[in-house]
Amino acid sequence: MQRKNFTEVAEFIFLGFSIFGNHQITLFVVFLSTYIFTLTGNIIVITVICIDRHLHTPMYFFLSMLSSSETVYTLVIIPRMLSGLIFYNQPISLGSCATQMFFFAILAANNCFLLTVMSYDRYVAICKPLRYTVLMNKGVCARLVCGSFGTGLVMAVLHVTAMFNLPFCGTVVEHFFCDIYPVMKLSCIDTTVNEIINYGVSSFVIIVPVVLVFISYILIISSILKIPSVEGRKKTFATCASHLTVVVVHYGCAAIAYLKPKSENAIEEDLLLSVTYTIITPLLNPVVYSLRNKEVKDALRRAVGRNSS
Known about the structure:
Blueprint: E1 11-14, H1 24-51, H2 58-86, E2 91-93, H3 94-127, H4 132-135, H5 138-163, E3 172-173, H6 180-184, H7 192-225, H8 230-259, H9 267-291, H10 294-308
Helix pairs in contact: 1-2, 1-9, 1-10, 2-3, 2-9, 3-5, 3-7, 3-8, 5-7, 7-8, 8-9
């Protein structure tokens, strides 16, 4: 089949949360409040890490990069989602949809690999402490961050190129943003090849980081168990607990969303899952790393103290 056999689709309309009827205003208030908290928290984390020299270490450099990525990630999706809760049936052009999907794919993959880089940093810090400053110098840190973003860029190009070479017949996206599978369902032709490509890309972006993180933490835990004092073991593991919490939730949601077998799930279930990895997961970053991190809280107090004096 050729594209000319189909009516050209110029724009899409998001189904969004219209299935929840009168509850959309309540959802708007909840999502807006969560978004403001997420945005504020991530900006505070980035600012404190930049201005406090005590936090100028590889671990906090990677954390600031993750916070920056999460901030842009939410900007790509949530403002339009909030607009859709108030102004119904807003159209989005194919070009805008492709742009949104492109940045979503870059940043989602970038976040996955940044979390892997952070686990490698913890491995070096705990298992090779005497060589830490050599193995994690500024050049290495910069290359790791660039490698994460570069990998995300390649994955995004593959996703979007494969997707927007398809002819589309449907116009209603059963989602609140241009995610891969809801848009793919609108194609006029068989999408088996695209599904294979997207499943392969998603598997690489999720499974490879998970395996690397798993190996890092096996080595970390084995090193921690060799520490003679109980107090020493608790203190050392505490430095990894925040990262491990974010890792479990982040990769868990991503795996369920993109690696589950294709099935006829209810739209409500898909929307709930999407809300988790687009709104709730980015919130974990400032909450877990700020509210539960003594060094960040101390740095924040020092910054507030300087401004008030």
